[in-house]
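User: Run a structure prediction on this.
Assistant: Running it now.
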Amino acid sequence: MSNHEELARILNDEINAAADEAALEAVRVSALGKKGRISQLMKSLGSMDPEERKVMGPALNGLKNEVQQAIAQRQQVLYSQALDARLETEKLDVTLPLQASALTSGRIHPVSQVMDEIAAIFGDMGFAIAEGPDIEDDFHNFTALNIPPEHPARQMHDTFYFGEQEDGSRLVLRTHTSPVQIRTMTAGPPPHRIVAPGRTYRCDSDQTHTPMFHQIEGLVIDKETHLGHLKWVLEEFCKAFFEVDTIKMRFRPSHFPFTEPSLEVDIGCARLGNEIRVGEGDDWLEILGCGMVHPQVLRNVDIDPEVYQGFAFGMGIDRLAMLKYGIPDLRAFFEADLRWLRHYGFTSLDIPSLHGGLSR
């Protein structure tokens, strides 16, 4: 038996003995690779005399083709065997109940849903969404907002302070989203029309207060804005948010350092046991604070109060969610209880829109 015939027998045995595709690939490389046994024989053709080359050339080419064909056939057999083994282990029991997909079982948190609802309403009125950092400096969180040094909001029993910096100042976890208003006014000239939703932080915790909560504040600055515009914006917002045709509103004098005049807003409601129905009844419920931007606040951000004026308002997003969807305890918002979330949450496709209905 010649050398190439002996090699053909050996290679066929190795191909048939390959237990998987990785082993078969090793055989292919050892035979047909750059340094493979057949490749080495092909290189030796150059050193043969013409008569011997006439015989060995076709023989080696035939051996190469034979091995390639044998490898392809074995590869198909191994693939079929692997597929059969996989199908055997991946049988599906069609009698089992259908498992809910993440798309249907997942839930959007009520706070996230209400944020989207509020953004849809104010976006339709032409407001832009503005954001700012959760960690603020004294100027943006207090001083620019006309909050004096002795004000209770600056005290440690109400505010989370960081350690002192080299210059003696201390950063804070923002106590409201009003710093976003300051950053908006310092970023460019009026007019401004923005709402600023986000997380805020205060040292408080009970059934209706948590150390971290969510607020949204609005700001409009231009040359002709007045209280009538503010009242219209808030009335339209409340009707759209609570999805009622009419709503009673009451504006009461109040005091905030950053607005003058300052007002607190109540909406008409009916209390039936533990249920509050907005848009009906003779009772009142406080929902937000607002007012005309204080002239000193405008001066603090280099806006001339003789030329520009505007209004601002702020409300708690968590409180709005509790009122609209009948959630009794604010602390449950942050406990990550899946049972609670499945009950009060929204499906991922419940995207709020004014034309399709906010809460559908």
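The CA atoms of residues 7 and 16 lie 14 Å apart.
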